[in-house]
Amino acid sequence: MTWIAKPPLHHPELRRNRVGYTRRDYEGKVSTLCAGCGHDSISAAIIQACWELDIEPHRVAKLSGIGCSSKTPDYFLGASHGFNTVHGRMPSVLTGANLANRELLYLGVSGDGDSASIGLGQFAHAMRRGVRMTYIVENNGVYGLTKGQFSATADTGSRSKKGVVNSDSPVDLVGMALQLGATYVARSFSGDKAQLVPLIKGALRHGGAAFVDVVSPCVAFNNHEGSTKSYEYVREHNEAVSRIDFIAPGAELAPRPAADGALDVPQGDGTVLRLRSVAPGYDPTDRRAALDLLQERHSRGELATGLLYVQADPEDLHSALNTTRRPLNELGLAELCPGTAALEALNAGLK
Ligand SMILES: Cc1ncc(C[n+]2csc(CCOP(=O)(O)OP(=O)(O)O)c2C)c(N)n1
Ligand code: SF4
Ligand SMILES: [Mg+2]
């Protein structure tokens, strides 16, 4: 058996959100991952975020590649649209779906192998194009599904379960997302739900390319001494730089300091992210400062977490391409195919 159905009955008095759903309506099948796998905590955080944001499940399209992480969309949002692509190809399938129908909320779920090895080129182009999506990497430093080989995000000098030392340099997807122009970039830890849920909520409301790297320990192959992706290591070495305190409806047009020193940053859907710096003087709207901070923390063996960078009122691929607002499947033949005369006029203009 590859999946287990959950009993459909639940308590009639479970709390409902403003669109009438209980938290259970955002669940999926029973997880078949190893007990204690960080990926299951991320699924729980996604469920919590969508329920709290009153998102109707049928408005979400969840896409993934291949891996334990990429299996997880089966374990949340059971009533949403879903597409399990070939290994590493989720970003291009998500881009195509997004261009065809901008009315859905796009949630890409991937692994460090899926995005930093075979899918690195796909990841890069989705970020640089500003595809409106929430892109979550469940980062455990190994290929969990194929039994624990080092992935491209494994730190130099970290040890495998059998004691092999990794000599390669790591790919830092957060640094890449920042350099490539993503407009919302965060890092978190699957063991810190209080930090992770607001970061996912902020990403879902963002309106541009939102990337969330979540360190997610693999208890079967990468949770031992010598690993830099174990529960113990991440608990000891992660340091939050900012905190999303409040997301309020209604927006102003530019980032401005809130009265008590917090920073208000308007987002694509008209809401405002209220950010508080935990690291003294850290400004999460300064892309260069975010890159400097990453390098500085990395050189000390520390992990900077929280919302590292956010841009106010982000642009996305649709605004760059000036695409139609209506989903393509709602357009008629006349709109999709303007006819021979229009094509000839277009060709004449190119001569
Ligand atoms: C084209 C292709 N190459 C290789 C594989 C084998 N494969 C399956 S999952 C995987 C790596 C998964 O690692 P990651 O994305 O980090 O997910 P995790 O299992 O660690 O969550 C690989 C190499 C495959 N399925 N398809
Ligand atoms: S092998 Fe690792 S990543 Fe896969 S389910 Fe088990 S703990 Fe999670
Ligand atoms: Mg992995």
UniProtKB/TrEMBL annotation:
It holds the Pfam family TPP_enzyme_C. GO terms for molecular function: oxidoreductase activity, acting on the aldehyde or oxo group of donors, iron-sulfur protein as acceptor; thiamine pyrophosphate binding. The keyword Oxidoreductase applies. Residues 66-214 form the Thiamine pyrophosphate enzyme TPP-binding domain. Signal peptide: none annotated. Gene3D superfamilies: 3.40.50.970. Keywords: Oxidoreductase. SUPFAM superfamilies: Thiamin diphosphate-binding fold (THDP-binding). It comes from the Bacteria. The keyword Oxidoreductase applies. GO terms for biological process: cellular respiration; small molecule metabolic process. PANTHER family: 2-OXOGLUTARATE OXIDOREDUCTASE SUBUNIT KORB-RELATED, BLR6744 PROTEIN. This is 2-oxoacid:ferredoxin oxidoreductase subunit beta. It comes from Ramlibacter rhizophilus.
